[in-house]
Amino acid sequence: MSELNTAVQEPKAHPRRKQKEKKPNSLWSDAWYDLRRNKVFLVGTAIAILLILMAIMPGVFAPQNPLACNLVDARQGISSEHWFGIDNQGCDTFSRVIHGARISILVGLLTSVVTGLVGGVLGLIAGFYGRWVDVILSRLAEIFFAIPSILGALLLLSAVGRDAAGVWTVVLALAILAWPMVLRIMRAAVITAKSQDYVTAARALGASPFRISVRHILPNAVAPVIVVCTMNLGVFIAGEAALSFLGVGIQSPNISWGLMIADARNRFLMAPEPLIFPAIFLSITVLSFVMIGDAVRDALDPKLR
């Protein structure tokens, strides 16, 4: 008998490929993906970054001293040495506009942070604990919410006096009347998140109230607060300019766009540049932060997906 030598072909041993389970994208990763492709967000962010750099390093953009004034040269027009002309006090308008960005943007950022922290923490407490805690905080917020922001800040700064008016005084005056809006938004988001299954599961596993509120509820409820605080940046910058224009905000020798507009209004027909250019920079700054806020709102709102 002839033996048949059959070649037994063994199957090739393929190395096991580690298939990584694709994790579902979080809200923040999806939002960042959308923001990177949003032209409105990119344009607004580019303008905001330029303005922030201008506020941090004003000497790089305007090497002239904004406080070096000469009344003999007052109200001169645009020239090669003075791009924005000279104001009523004989100061270079371009240098003062660049240096004025620091206080205006600083007030807007600080007020947004203060209102976000105060309103966010109180809204988290009110929404999580409910009952009498919610009633007290909600009624307190309604008292402040009923007062118009600019009018209330005007009264507060008038009571404090011009001598005590400064950056933190203006920030506190605006924040005292703006935190109730953040509280109401945070409270509503916390109440919605508190009824979700993952919160029930955390309670069943014995998690403490602090851990549940900070670890599970806060990350899922903070998105609306971030949107509101971002959009309010421009509102607070405009509010600071309005208070300085009315004479109760930032005082000389500090430089603010609102203060510059107030100083130039009486000689507008003779020298319009000292009023026009601060107003243009103020409008661009407010518009840039509003653009960023709108884009962030669209990216973080799941209903718009």
UniProtKB/TrEMBL annotation:
<feature type="transmembrane region" description="Helical">
    <location>
        <begin position="40"/>
        <end position="61"/>
    </location>
</feature>
<dbReference type="Pfam" id="PF00528">
    <property type="entry name" value="BPD_transp_1"/>
</dbReference>
<dbReference type="InterPro" id="IPR025966">
    <property type="entry name" value="OppC_N"/>
</dbReference>
<keyword id="KW-0472">Membrane</keyword>
<protein>
    <submittedName>
        <fullName>Oligopeptide transport system permease protein</fullName>
    </submittedName>
</protein>
<comment type="similarity">
    <text>Belongs to the binding-protein-dependent transport system permease family.</text>
</comment>
<dbReference type="InterPro" id="IPR035906">
    <property type="entry name" value="MetI-like_sf"/>
</dbReference>
<dbReference type="Pfam" id="PF12911">
    <property type="entry name" value="OppC_N"/>
</dbReference>
<keyword id="KW-1003">Cell membrane</keyword>
<feature type="transmembrane region" description="Helical">
    <location>
        <begin position="140"/>
        <end position="160"/>
    </location>
</feature>
<feature type="transmembrane region" description="Helical">
    <location>
        <begin position="221"/>
        <end position="250"/>
    </location>
</feature>
<dbReference type="InterPro" id="IPR000515">
    <property type="entry name" value="MetI-like"/>
</dbReference>
<dbReference type="GO" id="GO:0055085">
    <property type="term" value="P:transmembrane transport"/>
</dbReference>
<feature type="transmembrane region" description="Helical">
    <location>
        <begin position="103"/>
        <end position="128"/>
    </location>
</feature>
<keyword id="KW-0813">Transport</keyword>
<keyword id="KW-0812">Transmembrane</keyword>
<feature type="transmembrane region" description="Helical">
    <location>
        <begin position="166"/>
        <end position="186"/>
    </location>
</feature>
<feature type="transmembrane region" description="Helical">
    <location>
        <begin position="275"/>
        <end position="296"/>
    </location>
</feature>
<feature type="domain" description="ABC transmembrane type-1">
    <location>
        <begin position="101"/>
        <end position="293"/>
    </location>
</feature>
<keyword id="KW-1133">Transmembrane helix</keyword>
<dbReference type="GO" id="GO:0005886">
    <property type="term" value="C:plasma membrane"/>
</dbReference>
<feature type="region of interest" description="Disordered">
    <location>
        <begin position="1"/>
        <end position="22"/>
    </location>
</feature>
<dbReference type="InterPro" id="IPR050366">
    <property type="entry name" value="BP-dependent_transpt_permease"/>
</dbReference>
